[in-house]
Design goal:
- It contains four helices and 18 strands.
- It has helices at about 25-35, 85-90, 150-160, 215-220, and strands spanning about 1-5, 15-20, 35-40, 50-55, 55-65, 75-80, 95-105, 110-115, 120-125, 135, 140-150, 165-170, 175-180, 185-190, 205-210, 225-235, 235-245, 250-255.
- It has an eight-stranded mixed sheet with strand order 3-4-5-2-6-9-8-7, covered by helices on one side. The protein has an eight-stranded mixed sheet with strand order 12-13-14-11-15-18-17-16, with helices on one face.
- The protein is globular and about 45 Å long.
Length: about 260
Amino acid sequence: MTEAAARRTPGAPCWVSLIVHGLSATQEFYGNLFGWEFRPGPEELGPYVRALLDGKEVAGIGQLPPDRHLPIAWTTYLATEDADLTAEVIRACGGTVAVGPIVAGSAGRLAIASDPSGAVFGIWQASAHVGTALAGEPGTPVWNELVTRETSSVAKFYQAVFGFELEAVVSADFDYQTLHLEGRPVAALHGVGHALPRDRGPHWMTYFEVDDADDAAARVVELGGHVLQPPREGSSGRLATVADPEGAVFTIVRSADR
């Protein structure tokens, strides 16, 4: 078990959240899948709960207003020391800020933005809430990856806004760049060309650790979700891409180093 409650390096993924239509049903799905328990969180954007493992916060789930019909998707939040300044830089570099920056009670300050390709992400300026408080255990976010058409142009955006160092895979048929901060890999960009899903476009993907990818994929179906890419071996371990009952897509992985 790894404690992960320290303040994150600016640019590092620090939190993931999901906004859905049916908050109670979504809590039941993820509670049964990952063993999450829940407690109320800040409600500046509406009803919101934080998911807990062993009493430690690992993710957030909120509820859309009845009249809002936005895509249901997990959102990756990147740490910042100044949400207002980062929002200005996002705009200056060709991105869009759709929400905020706003105050989330005593927890911190946030904004929801999109990069020039349209992929949505959040920025988080921590106060009382620094982000995910547990890492490496089943049910915790273990990796975040931007799935996009091609990485070269969007990589320049993230590098300019967050100061990432880029490490590209040298391959004619594999477009992949790892984002590093202080010499450590923190996220990645994956260009998939025409394989990019038309119904989602460029998007950030959250990977959740599981004990067994095959069992977890079967459990997703039992709980009313869907398997989009069945369990397979990857460079990071055995993984599957799945969707919850409202269509939020995520990846489950049994990491190779576990």
